[in-house]
Amino acid sequence: MSRKVKSVSFNTEDPFEKEMYEYSKKFSNFSSFVKRLIHISMNGKQPVANIEVGEISELSTDKPKINKDFLRQLI
């Protein structure tokens, strides 16, 4: 079996990243959560969190909306 590991680091000194880290702890299977987000992104869909933690549904949109605060973090 061939597995590749990609780690995600969070800077807990940065309020935005700390918030993401705290949110990520709600998911018992973080790897599956990230893979589902990648899959949604690959298909050009916007992820929408349901009321229950860990569930993600897909919302089909013509143009995905980008959160300006998230975009700021990428620059």
TrEMBL record:
<protein>
    <submittedName>
        <fullName>Uncharacterized protein</fullName>
    </submittedName>
</protein>
